[in-house]
Amino acid sequence: MSRQMTGARMVIEALRDQGVDTVFGYPGGAVLPIYDEIFQQNDIKHVLVRHEQGAVHMAEGYARSTGKPGVVLVTSGPGATNAVTGLTDALLDSIPLVVLTGQVPTFLIGTDGFQEADTIGITRPCTKHNWLIKDTDELAGTIHKAFHIATSGRPGPVLIDIPKDVQFATGEYVGPKQIETPSYQPAKKGDLAAITKLVELMEKAERPIFYTGGGVINSGTAASQLLRELADATGFPVTSTLMGLGAYPASGKRWIGMLGMHGLYEANMAMHDCDLMIAVGARFDDRITGRVADFSPGSVKAQIDIDPSSINKIIHVDLPIVGDVGHVLEDMLKIWKARGRKTNSAGLQQWWVQIEQWKAVNCLAYRNSETVIKPQYALQRLQALTAARKPYIATEVGQHQMWAAQFLHFDDPNHWMTSGGLGTMGYGLPASIGAQVAHPDALVINVAGEASWLMNMQEMGTAVQFRAPVKQFILNNERLGMVRQWQQLLHGERYSQSWSDSLPDFVKLAEAFGCRGRTVSDPAELDDAIQEMLDYDGPFILDVLIEKHENCFPMIPSGKPHNEMLLGEASTEGAITGAGGALV
Amino acid sequence: MAALNIHKGATSHSAYDLRDPHSQTIESHTLAVLVDNEAGVLARVIGLFSGRGYNIDSLTVAEVDHSGHRSRITIVTRGTPSVIEQIKAQLGRIVPVHEVHDLTVEGPSVERELGLFKVSGKGEKRVEALRIAEIFRASVVDSTLESFVFEITGTPEKLDAFADLMRPLGLSDQARTGVAALARGA
Question: By the 8 A CB rule, do A430 and A70 touch?
């Protein structure tokens, strides 16, 4: 059946056929025909953002919290260039996005036309793939292909640049089933011989560890389930990167906390001293490894990853398994069971004794105060008052992000949205809106620092307009806290440009946007303030004035190995017996 | 040593790869990359090399299958064994890339380059240039009373040697295609 329609109509038709329910976007000259089509339908909801960067982060929040690709629609030129930070963020964190950009008409391309930019050239290094459409007949097929590429293999953002005349012209629509099987088909199943070899290593290992990452989350909820089953059945400890939090529950018996630069002492020590490291969907990022030459010197390393380029990129692994985490874990579990569910129980028992000793160091201890709110305390209270509602948590980037990762507990995948690879300040507020749009009835909280939050604060308008009751939990130290910490530790306490002067009154700001806000500075009022934030039916900004000079510990200083962590001021003896009383 | 044949989705290190992964020796490798001949594919490949700081010694590209719209890119690159492995894996990740072959480790291969060399001179030097060209089996494709353009095909080393000999005889300009390479045998 031949279906002729305009390019603009095709976009809507293709998105509908791909099951898209929400598009985050901002109109402009070069996408007006598509916006005209959006006006004339009700299947796809359009969320009007305030800045195109916000649209991409919202789509990321939507994608991370649902496992479905996020869709963005922006105009040519500045619309596309404003999307670049979000695209790069999604590429580094392997988030599936389909971004549609308008372009000047084909006959104006190359003439420096109004709002013309070489979008394909600019976004080539920050997308998994991108296309410029020159013929309306190619449009629908390319959109279907784009969804396939964004979501298969290692997920990532893709971009389709659509000139305005292509949107106006009429062409042939093809549905998702009519297009030929795309040649891009990454292998999903791992090599069974290698998996069997890994199981053999697992049976003998005395000090094994699962080092899990964002790949487990990206593989889907079944992968998280399999990881839980495997870890619980074998009794192996599980640590995770920032990106993988929630794949194995924080309440699980085998959980030893996040690893890395601001990871837990027990997790980093276990990584350093293990004899079998099983990397599952994790890529040995520099925040994880510390000094590469001294990274886990005595271990046999196995790595499961769907992207062959992640293997042996930074750390040489002894047993690489290329495949989808879910498929490989399933085969691992099957083979391990078939071979009699063996583990080295005597070795494991000793290993856990050692891990318990490391845990006893109590690396997250901090000196609490009765006069000023400590950021750690604020997050502990947030955790205590919200855990029952299984909140979706977004963060900005900096100290608050690391404290959130340390002090909030994630028991489910897809509930944690943070900019891990790129470290994009301004990510959290829009990401929280994206997650809220996907889960209208859920509790969605953005744990923010005041400086990061200001970077995309215009999106509060979006939250109010679309009645997204996102809770903005701002840990306000009037500093660029992480920058300040590094300047203190590494730059002779010369605090160059790392304070936030002339901050807005966040309560008045909330009111100006048409929502509610509150400032809290007294630890005794914190619970009440958090409760007010949770009870309010709408977006809320809670401005928590915290200790201004608190440092984030533990910390592996850059260039140091895992076993040379700084445990910080709070781990000194005086602090542990201090008067605060709420030590962890 | 078995051939390293990197297919998409395959492990990039086979158990039979006996090269020391930690070696810091810089090796030269010739890679053949089969790609869809679509807009921007060369920019993707070149952008990968510049973006990730890899070297390109030479690069040639042409469509080799007109009906299938496939092009073959031949790249001569340098790096430690782990960098070479990483380059191959990163190339394999590019969506329009179908196959990546490392001709240097996959078995014997033939490598050829075509060069055009302009030699200007008179008298004895001109005669000597012709004589050497004959030894190298270079052919004269343009001639004036004061210059020749020689066409020569061979390995890059042969072309280098030819250029070195022609330099004192009046080599004034040269153009080279870069390496095209194919595996030997069926």
Answer: no
DSSP-derived 3-state class of residue A269: helix
pLDDT in tens, A507-530: 999 999 999 999 999 999 999 999
What is the H or E stretch that residue A302 is in? Answer: strand A300-305
Q: Is the pTM of this model over 0.90?
A: yes
Element (H, E) at A146: helix A136-151
ipTM of the predicted structure? 0.90
- Torsion-angle region of B82 (φ positive above 0: left; ψ -120 to 50: alpha; else: beta): alpha
**All domains of chain A in start order, with CATH:** 3-173 (3.40.50.970), 192-359 (3.40.50.1220), 375-552 (3.40.50.970)
Residue B88: closest C-alpha in chain A = A309
Burial tier of A57 (Cβ tally within 10 Å: 0-12, 13-18, 19+): buried
Q: Write the pLDDT tens digit of every residue in A435-480.
A: 999 999 999 999 999 999 999 999 999 999 999 999 999 999 999 9
Domains B27-106 and B110-183 share a fold: yes
- Nearest-CA residue of chain A relative to B46? A125
Q: In this structure, what token pair is assigned to residue A29?
A: 């000259």
> CA–CA separation, B60 vs A434, rounded Å?
45
B110-183, CATH topology level = Alpha-Beta Plaits (3.30.70)
The yes-or-no answer on residue A553 being catalytic is: no
The whole-number pLDDT of residue A434 equals 98
Q: Is the pLDDT of residue A401 over 80?
A: yes
Active-site residue (options: A164, A359, A374, A471): A164
- Quote the tokens at residue B144: 């004036």
Mean pLDDT of B26-33: 96
Domain locations in chain B? 27-106, 110-183
> Residues B70-120: pLDDT tens digits?
999 999 999 999 999 999 999 999 999 999 999 999 999 999 999 999 999
Could you please state the CATH topology (level 3) that the domain comprising B27-106 is classified under.
Alpha-Beta Plaits (3.30.70)
- Considering only CA atoms, which of A139, A146, A73 is closest in space to residue A106? A139
Query: Which of A124, A132, A312, A322 is best to mutate for the B interface (most B CBs within 10 A)?
Result: A312
